[in-house]
Amino acid sequence: MTPKRLAGWLIVLCATTGQFLFSRSTPDLSQVHRVLIINEANPSYPAIRMIDDAIQESFRGSKYRIEIYREYLDTMLFPDGADQNRFWDFYVRKYQQRKPDVIVTVGSSPLKLLATQHNRLFPGVPVIFCFPNGVEHELKSDAQITGVTMGLDAVGTVNAALQLLPETKHVIVVGGAASFDHQQIANVRRQLEMLKGRLDISYLTDLSITEIEARVASLSKGSIVLYSSIARDAEGNLFTSQESGPLICRASAVPVFSLYDVFIGHGEVGGNLARLREQGTVAGKDVLKIFDGLRPSDIAIEQAPNGFVFDWRALKRWGLKESELPPGTTLLYRQPTAWESYRGYIIAGVVLILLQTTLISALLWQRNRRRKFERDLSLMNDRLRLSFEVSKSVGWNWDLKNRRNRWFGDLQSIFGLAADRYEAKLGEFMEYVHPDDRRRVAVTIARARASRETYSDEYRVLQRDGHVRWIAARGAFYYSEAGVPERMVGMAMDITERKAAEEALTTLSGRLIKAEEEERSRIAREIHDDYQQRLALFANDLDSLREQIETSAPAAKETLRQLWNEVSELAADMHSLSHRLHSSTLENLGLVAGIKAFCHEFEQQQGLEVRFTSEEVPRSIPPETALCFFRVAQEALRNVKRHSGADRAEVHLEWTGDSLHLVVSDSGRGFERTVRSASSGIGIRSMEERLRLVGGHLNLHSQPSQGTRIDAWVPLKAVSQTANFEVNVTPLRD
Description:
Strand order of the largest sheet: 2-1-3-4-5-11
Structural class: alpha/beta
CATH class of the largest domain: Alpha Beta
Largest sheet: 6 strands, parallel
Shape: rod-shaped
CATH topology of the largest domain: Heat Shock Protein 90
Strand content: 15-25%
Helix content: 40-55%
Radius of gyration: 65 Å
């Protein structure tokens, strides 16, 4: 196919495939702004696509509704001037009804033609040029033309190459045979003139691609290749940057440096590259300035920025150091190191290993610690078991949630179980408690559970074979966060021997007190029946003697009167001693009358005001209980007289329905219970022991300067039972 016929088909294709693109911004729908982009080459060339994409990108977000039209001169395919003129004539006719508001030229050929025939082709239409390839210096002044120039920097690229390869002596510039290639070479030649004294610079142009490959393959060390462009070789073969770049780089025996960002990534080392994308960006912004109302003459011609860009793979191929690259270099295709590629995995792995090491170390430490604790626990268990066996004790653990009860210790001695551990249901424990003590034990446990106080009690255990053992139990409940009891832990000790000793001591104490009271009664009877009668007879004899010697001397009569008075006082003292040792009023008239009489007698003898009151006291009180309360009242009033310093005391006796209650109080100096001396406490201990023998107890309340109060209690059951209390003691004989 001849070039003319090919041109005809291209015209038909252009006429039927005009393209336009609306911007994605929010447009002003009242007016459409048309942009005509005239490219030197077709879109198969990466530079054309790159610039076109940048222009479109700069329109995004603008406030205008923009229609974009594209035309391609394809000067590589149709270099004939006549063909190019027909193309331009066609464009003029094509856009007569859609006159563009701005024309953007990409490449040197459309710019050169518009600069000479602007008024004929598109009069009055502003022109923005980009990628001019150096022809912008040949243009005549035109107020309707402005644009962006290329930042071609051959000198900067060569200097960067010398930094990487300081032994370089020869620079071979490689270019093609197309008009565009010649323009490029001419521009490079002008720039490299300044380096002629330092380097040997030669040019490989207007050759076939095969010959160029052979030439660069034969280069030796100390040389570099500066690749300009090959759009067409001497044999008429057309090439894009994606095609010519790899051919030159693969064939070259020395590093290949380039001038444009489209010549990178095919094996080129790189250089201070002209950024074609920036060409399109600046041109697109200039178009928007025209739409904003600026004239081309108001927009200064701007040079697109360059930048040092290098291919990391080419650096590694030629053994070039990254440290020698210029500051601010962009390094492409850099293969990350294992650390960079797997840094997250490496860090995670190291952290995991450290964590595992820490956990393993912690587990080993925990295991050793656990083993030590197990040894210590085993030793403690052995000691505890031995202590349980020696002390005849058991421990228990009540699991209230699972309703299980675990016992351990000397179970044989206390419960009659032939084992040192036993587990049963929770309620089985009560089967071993003596029937008479079960209710009290259950109430005590329930009270400790509700009040969260320590459980403490003494009760009897009934073994399967009928043997009874006394135990002292003490335990505590443990509660959940919600306040629900979950567990009870405690210990019980066999106190059977202690209880037997206490019972024997109580029996002995009762016998001693009974013997004391019987001895008091015997002495009181002897005083009353013998000595007091004899003193009365002696007093009567003295009185008869006084009547017989009334006529005697006055001195004898006075002596006789004094003897009679002394004998009367002695008789009264003997009568009082007899009452203190054994109150006949208590025995004959009852407890209320006995205490009342004693209070009156004590008041007369000691000069202490005593107020006695009673309330609903029954007449039938067991003699032992009545005697006990009488002795407590005696001892309490004696203590008031001896220690309180008070001049008044109160005695109150009452029946509360289930207990007999005696109160002796004063408003004297009082004392601190914690510092009560042993000598001052003999009387109190005597009162406590007497009450304990009849099943009662004593409460003492006293504070310094606030007086003292004694409360004696004997329960109803104890009162009823003490009637049967008997101690067989043989009375002392005269």
